[in-house]
Amino acid sequence: MSFKLTRRxxxxxxxxxxxxxxxxxxxxxxxxxxTLYICILFAFVIVLVLLSYFGQRRDNSRALLSLREQHDxxxxxxxxxxxxLQEKNMELLNENNEQKKTIEKLQSQITExxxxxxxxxxxxDALKKELKAxxxxxxxxxALAAKxxxxxxQFIExxxxxxxxxxxxxxxxxxELKAEYDALINPPEEE
Length: 191
Hints:
Layout: E1 3-5, E2 11-13, H1 20-145, H2 149-161, H3 168-185
Helix pairs in contact: 1-2, 1-3, 2-3
């Protein structure tokens, strides 16, 4: 094949004088077979691309399904854990409230017992003082019976200092014993 230049500066194939008839027959056949070959290759590439696309899509849908299942499992486990934690939290709050009530009851009982103990201690002290005063009254009576004026004077002086500790009947006894003492130290004159 040869080329010739024309005025338009374009390249055109020079007419081939030899075997023009054979070339004319071969040219369409050659271009048809090349075109057919390119079309088959293009179709094959398209089929491969489509196969690859659908295979990738199938793998992606499997992976997506697997991820959804995992997500559903994790979500359900998370909700179960949340419910369990909320139940446990409510139980702990109830226990805490019950323990607070128990503590308050125990504290009120402790306060009552402390008050009772203070009252008992005060009563015990008062009873000890009354007992001591009663012992002193008994000792005064014994001294008066023995006609020991000096000892009787000591007990009367001691009992006058403990007058607030004497019960009412003890105060009356002390008055009677003072009268006896006065009679002892100042005997009535005989006429």
